[in-house]
Design goal:
Length: 107
Amino acid sequence: PTSSPARAVLVDADDALWAGLEGGGLVRWRATFWERYSIDQGLSDDTVQYLFEDEEQTLWVGTTSGGLNSFSVGNFMTFGAPEGLAGDAAHAVMQDRRGTVWVATLH
């Protein structure tokens, strides 16, 4: 779908393959075709460096300079400094046993 290198990959609970790309946004393989998500579709940054799916099947997308995005029911929500994120580079995401989502940033 693109010549951008993949920086993160994930197979979700529905067995769809996701790839976060360097400068190419986010792509999802849906059995017979690729779907692409970029800034035009609401992703905060087209360089994706981390993918995580939580127990509610929300996809969390860590970006290089656009903070953190959640993707659920076809919509992106962005979390950055205004929402309390310590930095705009989200390097890792995890969920603890209580369901709290944790994010690693550079700051």
